[in-house]
C-alpha cells in the first residue's frame, strides 16, 4: 500500500489568537524543521520576557491617516488569524497597535514609511511584540515601506486589508543589526479586483523568519510577491509563503531570489500554494532561485502546489540552487575584467530584474548599496 501524500493545506489548517492552542515546537514539525529553535530567544515557547524596546514611527502621506490604538480595537484581527505559536504569541502580547488607513478612492501622493527600530544593541534585552494593520479602502491606491533596523528580539503580525478595486504596493526591508531576531507574519486579504504588490528585502539580523501569506475574499484579486535576500556567514534567513486560492478567477505570482556566502550561511524558502475546488480559473506560479557564492553555505528550497480543481488558467512552480557559473566568470575575465568585478557583475545580473520592481527610488538605491557592501566582504 503506497504512502498517502499529506495535503499542503494541512500545514495551515490551524488558526487561533491563543498561543495555548498551538503546541510548543520541538523542531520535528514540518513547519519548524528548518528553523534553529535555540536561536529564537524564547519567542516560540513563551519564555521570552516582554522587556524589549521597539519603536514604530510613521511618516505618512498627507492623504493617509495613522492611529495608535489599544488591543480592544475591533478592527484588529479581522483580516488575519495567527497560524502558528509565535504569531499567536505576538498577537496575545502586543500592547499597542498601529492602524494605517487609506480612505476610499484616495490616491496617496507619496509613499508612507513605517520605521520599526529596535533600541537594543544586542539580542539580550528581552523581547518586543507588535501589530500593524493597513486598511486600503475601495478604489484607493497607496505605497507603503516597512523599514526594520536596530537590535531586537521581535515578533509581530502585519495585516493588509485591501478593499474592492484598491491597490497596495509594499516594500518590506529587514535591515536589522547583527544579533537581531525577527519572526513576522504578513497577511494580505484581497477584495474583489484588488491588487497587491509585495517586495521583501532581507539582509540583516542573526535570524529572520518572515511568513507572507495571501487570501482572497472575492474574484479578480491579483497578488505579486517578490523577494530578495543576501545571507552571510552564520545568518539564518527564512521565508515561508502561503497563498490560498479559495475563490474563482484570481491570480498570484511569487518570485524570490537569494545569494549566500560564508560558513553557516543558511537560507530557507518554502512556497505553499493551494487551489481549492471552488477556485476555478486560478492562475498561479512560484519561483525560487539561490546563488551559492562560497563553500559552507546552504539553501533549502521547497515549493508545494496543491490543486483540487482541474479548471485552472495556469499553475506551476520552479526551484533551483547552484554556484556561480564558471563560464560566465571566465567569459568576463577573458575580456580583461578582474575576478572580483566579474563576480559582482554576475550577482548584479542575478538580481537585476527584481530590483527594477522596487518603485521607491531611495529604497532601490539603498538595496543596491547593501548588495555592494555584502559583495565587498
Give the SSE layout.
Layout: E1 54-59, E2 65-70, H1 85-93, E3 96-102, E4 112-119, E5 127-136, E6 141-151, E7 153-162, E8 167-174, E9 181-190, E10 195-202, E11 207-216, E12 222-231, E13 236-245, E14 251-260, E15 266-275, E16 283-292, E17 298-307, E18 314-323, H2 326-333, H3 339-355, H4 361-376
Helix pairs in contact: 2-3
InterPro entries: Fe-S_cluster_assembly_SufBD, SUF_FeS_clus_asmbl_SufBD_core, SUF_FeS_clus_asmbl_SufBD_sf, SUF_FeS_clus_asmbl_SufD
Pfam families: SUFBD_core
Domain SUF system FeS cluster assembly SufBD core: 125-350
What labels describe this entry?
377 residues; 9-stranded mixed β-sheet; 13% helix; disordered N terminus
Report on this structure.
This protein has one domain (8-324). The chain is mainly beta and 377 residues long. α2 crosses α3 (339-355). The model is unreliable at 1-5 (pLDDT under 50). The chain has helices at residues 85-93, 326-333, 339-355, 361-376; strands at 54-59, 65-70, 96-102, 112-119, 127-136, 141-151, 153-162, 167-174, 181-190, 195-202, 207-216, 222-231, 236-245, 251-260, 266-275, 283-292, 298-307, 314-323. It has 4 helices and 18 strands. The chain has a 9-stranded mixed beta sheet, covered by helices on one side. A 9-stranded mixed beta sheet has the order 2-3-5-7-9-11-13-15-17, covered by helices on one side. InterPro entries: Fe-S_cluster_assembly_SufBD (IPR055346), SUF_FeS_clus_asmbl_SufBD_core (IPR000825), SUF_FeS_clus_asmbl_SufBD_sf (IPR037284), SUF_FeS_clus_asmbl_SufD (IPR011542). Residues 1-24 are annotated as: Disordered. This is Fe-S cluster assembly protein SufD. Residues 125-350 form the SUF system FeS cluster assembly SufBD core domain. Belongs to the iron-sulfur cluster assembly SufBD family.
Amino acid at each position: 500500500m503506497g504512502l498517502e501524500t499529506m495535503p499542503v493545506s494541512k500545514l495551515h489548517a490551524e488558526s487561533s489568537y491563543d498561543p495555548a492552542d498551538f503546541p510548543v515546537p520541538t523542531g520535528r514539525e514540518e513547519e519548524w524543521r528548518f528553523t534553529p529553535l535555540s536561536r529564537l530567544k524564547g519567542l516560540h515557547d513563551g519564555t521570552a520576557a516582554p522587556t524589549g524596546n521597539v519603536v514604530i514611527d510613521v511618516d505618512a502621506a498627507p492623504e493617509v491617516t495613522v492611529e495608535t490604538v489599544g488591543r480592544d480595537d475591533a478592527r484588529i484581527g479581522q483580516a488575519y488569524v495567527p497560524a502558528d505559536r509565535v504569531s499567536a504569541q505576538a498577537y496575545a502580547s502586543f500592547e499597542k497597535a498601529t492602524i494605517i488607513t487609506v480612505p476610499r478612492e484616495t490616491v496617496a501622493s507619496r509613499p508612507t514609511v513605517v520605521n520599526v527600530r529596535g533600541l537594543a544593541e544586542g539580542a539580550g534585552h528581552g523581547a518586543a511584540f507588535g501589530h500593524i494593520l493597513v486598511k486600503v479602502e475601495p478604489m484607493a491606491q497607496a505605497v507603503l515601506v516597512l523599514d526594520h533596523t536596530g537590535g531586537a528580539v521581535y515578533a509581530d503580525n502585519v495585516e493588509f486589508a485591501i478593499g474592492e478595486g484598491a491597490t497596495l504596493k509594499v516594500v518590506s526591508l529587514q535591515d536589522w543589526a547583527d544579533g537581531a531576531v525577527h519572526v513576522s507574519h504578513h497577511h494580505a486579504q484581497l477584495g474583489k479586483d484588488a491588487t497587491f504588490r509585495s517586495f521583501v528585502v532581507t539582509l540583516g539580523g542573526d535570524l529572520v523568519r518572515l511568513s507572507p501569506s495571501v487570501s482572497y475574499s472575492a474574484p479578480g484579486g491579483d497578488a505579486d510577491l517578490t523577494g530578495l535576500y543576501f545571507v552571510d556567514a552564520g545568518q539564518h534567513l527564512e521565508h515561508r509563503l502561503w497563498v490560498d486560492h479559495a475563490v474563482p478567477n484570481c491570480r498570484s505570482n511569487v518570485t524570490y531570489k537569494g545569494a549566500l556566502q560564508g560558513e553557516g550561511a543558511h537560507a530557507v524558502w518554502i512556497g505553499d500554494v493551494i487551489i481549492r475546488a471552488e477556485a476555478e480559473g486560478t492562475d498561479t506560479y512560484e519561483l525560487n532561485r539561490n546563488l551559492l557564492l562560497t563553500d559552507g553555505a546552504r539553501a533549502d528550497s521547497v515549493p508545494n502546489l496543491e490543486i483540487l480543481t482541474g479548471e485552472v488558467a495556469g499553475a506551476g512552480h520552479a526551484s533551483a540552487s547552484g554556484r556561480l557559473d564558471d563560464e560566465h566568470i571566465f567569459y568576463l575575465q577573458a575580456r580583461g575584467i578582474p575576478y572580483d568585478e566579474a563576480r559582482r557583475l554576475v550577482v548584479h545580473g542575478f538580481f537585476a530584474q527584481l530590483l527594477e520592481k522596487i518603485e521607491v527610488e531611495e529604497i532601490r538605491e539603498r538595496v543596491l548599496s547593501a548588495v555592494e557592501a555584502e559583495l565587498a566582504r
